[in-house]
Amino acid sequence: MLTPTHLVTAQSAYLAVCAASGNPPAISESLVALAAAMLPDLDSRQSYIGRLVPPLSTWVGTRFGHRTLTHSLAAQVVVLTIAWWLIPTGYFIALAAGWISHSIADMMTRSGVCWFWPSLARCVLPGNPRYRMEVLGQGELWFLLVMVGFGLVMMPLAQRAEGTTGLIRSAIGDIGNARKDFDADKGRLRFTITIRGRDNISYADISGTYRVIGPWREDGFLIATPTGPRSACRGTACDWYADHADLTRAGHQITTSFTLSAEVATGDALRAALAPLTADEIYLIGDFIAPESKAALPTVLISGDQVTLFYATPKMLDAWDKRALIAVELTVQARHAPGVDPGQLGPIGPAAPTIDPRIMRWLE
Predict the structure, then answer these.
(1) Exposed (0-12), middle (13-18) or buried (19+): which is 233, by Cβ within 10 Å?
(2) % the chain with pLDDT above 70
(3) 240-252 and 230-233 strand pairing
(4) What average pLDDT does the segment 161-166 reach?
(5) pLDDT number for residue 352
(6) Rounded to a whole number, what is the distance in angstroms from the first to the last CA of the chain?
(7) Measured between alpha carbons, how far is 106 from 112 in angstroms, rounded to an integer?
(8) Where do transmembrane segments lie in this chain (predicted)?
(9) Which of 55, 155, 188, 256 is the most exposed place for a label (fewest CB within 10 A)?
(10) Which of 172-176, 186-190, 235-239, 335-339 is least confident?
């Protein structure tokens, strides 16, 4: 079988294993799969890799013969066992997919492979030679086209990095299962969610794909929409009822957390402390006391004089520009790309009023 056919087969096999295992595909791993797909033909001086190192390929081919040692199960078991302990999982998958797929593809040709070397018995697929491929024949061309199509199907599934179980869960579309997948990887990945459902108040269709901000209660999501944050779950205790939910991993992301505390501060002072942060997304989670505040569900909740922020953005501090905020205890989440410095919190800012606002309202 020709090298281009082996390369395409290796890529398709690599993507298929990534889709099944949940390993996100990477270009560097893909290159390893390509190299592994050429490696077995080191026993033939006429191959691409054989022409690169003619002394070695000549010696291997003369000493062991073509499609023997370098195509064998024994060599694959020994090398892959060592590789399992020495290289990252993704590179191991690429090495195994490229090498093993080469041997299996060669079994589909008339001459087969000595897969159980040192036995010289040839392994073939299928057993009837009429259905095996001729090198450069129509059979190999059709096989190449099938592998191209298979790879194109596997690529988006592999990029979801959900694994077999995750893909089944996505097909079912249960938001509770989607939440479990989110909880397992939150903080290190970005997510989008495709929802089919309706608004719990207006009954309007809200189906679409949205960016996930964070969790909502036990089995729902807080999501970003063009009209602001909304909560989604399979029930009436949230803004949107999600009949079907498909969670998708949208790439790697790092979440760096900071603590923002003050006995007394203002909204302006808190914004000044947040200003040095350069992260793509910044969210505030925590509590402070600010009488006569207004709720902005689902991210600003009010209970008496206590205000609870739940994945609120710094912009929402505009509601308390000059007002005194008492007992501020906030966690600041800065979400950014790997390797990017999100910055650091600055000082709280200018001195804030020292009179408790619960007393101030009686003095005005």
Answers:
(1) buried
(2) 94
(3) parallel
(4) 72
(5) 47
(6) 89
(7) 6
(8) 73-100, 141-158
(9) 55
(10) 172-176
Secondary structure of residue 360 in the 3-state scheme: helix
What tokens does 33 get?
Answer: 């799969």
Mean pLDDT of the chain: 87
Q: DSSP letters of 290-350? A: -TT---BTTTEEEETTEEEEEEE-GGGGGGGSSSEEEEEEEEEEEEE-TT----------S
Q: Which residue has the tokens 């390369």?
A: 7
SS3 192: strand
HSE-CB at 246 with a 13 A cutoff on CA atoms is 12
Amino acid identity, residue 185? D
Name the β-bridge partners of 220: 216
Distance CA 300, CA 282 (A): 15
Report d(CA 286, CA 157) in Å as an integer.
Answer: 37
Which residues, in sequence order, are CB contacts of 223 under 8 Å at separation 6+? Answer: 193, 195, 210, 211, 212, 213, 229, 230, 231, 232
DSSP 205: B
**pLDDT for the residue 11:** 93
pLDDT value at residue 361: 55
Distance CA 57, CA 6 (A): 18
CA distance 167 to 158: 10
Nearest to 263 by CA among 130, 141, 354, 363: 354
91, pLDDT greater than 80? yes
- Which residue intervals of 65-162 are DSSP H helices? 73-86, 89-107, 138-159
Which of the listed CATH numbers 2.30.30.690, 3.30.70.20, 2.40.30.110, 3.30.360.10 matches domain 164-252? 2.30.30.690
Number of helices (H) and strands (E), helices first, in the chain? 11, 10
Higher per-residue pLDDT: 82 or 169: 82
Tens digit of pLDDT for each residue in 47-73? 777 777 888 878 887 888 888 888 889
Q: What is the mean pLDDT of residues 115-140?
A: 82
| CATH 2.30.30.690 domain locations along the chain | 164-252
